[in-house]
Amino acid sequence: MTESTTIKRRGMMLVLSSPSGAGKTTLAKRLLETDGNFTMSVSVTTRAKRPAEVDGQDYHFISPATFAEKVKRDELLEHATVFGNSYGTPRAAVQAALAQGRDILFDIDWQGTQQLKEKARDDVVSIFILPPSRAELERRLLSRAQDTPEIVRQRMAKANDELSHWAEYDYVILNDDVHRAEARIAGIVEAERHKRVRQTGLSEFVRGLMT
Ligand code: 5GP
Fold this sequence. Notes:
Helix content is 42%, strand content 19%. It is built from 8 helices and 9 strands. A 5-stranded parallel sheet has the order 2-7-1-8-9, with helices on both faces. A 4-stranded mixed sheet has the order 4-3-6-5. α1 (24-34) crosses α7 (178-193). It is globular. It binds guanosine-5'-monophosphate (5GP). The site of guanosine-5'-monophosphate (5GP) has 14 residues, from β5, β6 and α4.
């Protein structure tokens, strides 16, 4: 039996974006469960915690003053305002995970994706998730009982804004069925791990193969 061989590679920064209600959170959770090399980037936000959310796991819930302090100290890799609340990606956690050769998963909007690409284009892989239809998108948004009717209305309006940015992403997938969408994401991840530029240990490995 041959020993398993690993070639050193750089971690990727995988971004999932979609309008709210396209199933992005579920797909992110499935990827984290099935692929042991991903670490989720936990954002900071000034929005109120929803009942089902866990502080430190879904988000770090912080005050506007603390958020402003983090921006001032340049502790956020990117940040944006969504539905009147501030959201941002803590820089330190991302750097620590990448240094350990881990892949990082981001659930951020198009504004954050643009900023990440400006800062780390070679490391970013971006996927835009489309719902199968407008009716399904609205159904999923309405079934989120945790949001008030006013918030649901805002999210529907924001969906058009988010959808208009689909062409800025490396990949666009349809979430018509969660298992199929999951398989599509896994396929993209597998291919991206084999990109030559990402496999930093290739030169050394191939040198070892040559006589
Ligand atoms: P929600 O309030 O529903 O959790 O998230 C609202 C939107 O904010 C989603 O589109 C989500 O992807 C985005 N978002 C969450 N965290 C961040 C972040 O750190 N940066 C940016 N730019 N967007 C974020």
